[in-house]
Amino acid sequence: MSDILVVEDKESLRGMLRKTLEARGYSVEESADAYEARRKIQASRFLVVLTDLRLPAGSGFDVLQASKEADAQAPVIVMTAFGTVDDAVRAMKEGATDFLTKPVDTEHLLLVLERAMERQRLQTKYVLLKEEYQRRFGLPKMMGEDPALKETMLAIQRAAATDATVLVLGESGTGKELMSRALHQLSARAKGPFVAINCAAIPENLLENELFGHEKGAFTGATGRKIGRAEMAHRGTLFLDEIGDMPLSLQGKILRLVQERQFERVGGVQTITVDVRVVAATNRDLKAAVERREFREDLYFRLSVFPVEIPPLRRRRGDIIPLAEAFLERSAREMGRRGLRLSEEARRTLLEHAWPGNVRELQNCLERAAILCDGVDIRPEHLRLGSTADSGPTLADVMDLTGPLEEVTARAAARAEQEAIRLALRDAENDSTAAAERLGMSVPALRRRIKALGLG
Ligand SMILES: Nc1ncnc2c1ncn2[C@@H]1O[C@H](COP(=O)(O)OP(=O)(O)OP(=O)(O)O)[C@@H](O)[C@H]1O
Ligand SMILES: [Mg+2]
């Protein structure tokens, strides 16, 4: 396989090109006509094809087409004679990477070639990264079979068919971002960018800059123009994550963006119009925020044209086991382990847990279990979900439970008695008669206990 295929009928020029390229360390293959070039392209691969447009046995357009058929990404550079710019334009439209006018300037040729290869390298890198990312995050594969989630997915599909602003609602870890990405993938904008910005993670004074960009000299340190996320999302989807945390001071600008698709860069006077679909997400109760005057009502209305709610995991229990199995399989694969499976008891534990952290918590739980488990059966203890794990600290966290059982029980009883008396007195505003009544004991008995426990 050679690096570059040179297609040129004039022998002297072909020889000159070969010499120039070989001097730079490229390996070169030659063709004198379009037919032969096509055959070579079909038979092997080239990093770059450099072709004349006027050729015997066809034309440079045939060579271009053959290259696109063999590898849509492979760069093709066309050479045109002076005065045939129309052809060059047509070639670019049909997918040529660049063009050179004859007589070919060697410095220019090398520059264009380098640029084409660099672009090719970046593209390959981008594709690989994207694949890696999708494999890691399983995008845009939303898993779940529970009817409650099915309904949400249906809503996403419906929203994807429109260009409407979408508001994704759900507790932390329910999959708001994943759903929003899926929405983008399913929409007509799928080929465009999906650009996310987390409004809660960026300090208020930097958020506007991040969203809308700035002009050179907008503030100290603004040494050049910067393009903001809203502009990067042109022809794609702008994902405003944690919109509930958007500072009031910026909400007017967001409203304008949602409504008119317009904004100005920080320090800029020029109005910029973008073609974006806005998807916003929050785990906050926006309506309550409106009532507290922390969120603009007009923005709230604009955003909620198409609300999609993702139910918490505890309200779609049918998803727990299938998701757990999928996460376990993924973790096992990443760790190069085989045959890990959930025991019956582990399944029961998973189903009984309340999952306040939703799918993210489930995912972390199984990743951890895969690490902790040294056999093949995941057992409840590998899950590390104490039965009270979701309702705060356990008894062992607040008192010492070691030592002979009799002593432990006595200690615990004393603690409980102490706390019960303290609460009864507090609730009765230190009226010992009322407190004794609550505790179902006489006033003298209560006094004795207070003294014995050292509460008085
Ligand atoms: N239905 C699902 N199928 C597969 N993976 C899921 C599903 N739902 C969520 N996840 C995974 O759970 C994790 C949390 O999802 P995501 O980040 O989308 O949640 P979120 O609602 O944006 O959370 P937060 O409010 O904390 O930002 C991600 O790793 C995501 O891939
Ligand atoms: Mg999120």
Would you summarize the structure shown here?
The protein has 456 residues and is an alpha/beta fold. The protein has helices at 11-23, 34-43, 60-70, 85-93, 106-137, 147-160, 176-186, 204-212, 229-232, 248-260, 286-291, 297-303, 320-334, 344-352, 358-372, 380-383, 395-398, 405-427, 432-439, 443-452; strands spanning 4-7, 28-31, 48-52, 76-80, 98-101, 166-169, 194-198, 213-214, 226-227, 237-241, 262-264, 271-273, 277-282, 306-309, 341-342, 377-378.
Q: Structural class of the helices, strands and pairings?
A: alpha/beta
Beta-strand percentage range: 5-15%
Termini gap: 93 Å
Number of domains: 4
Approximate helicity band: 40-55%
CATH first level of the largest domain? Alpha Beta
Instruction: Give me the Rg, rounded.
Output: 34 Å
- Cross-sheet strand order for the largest sheet: 2-1-3-4-5
Shape: elongated
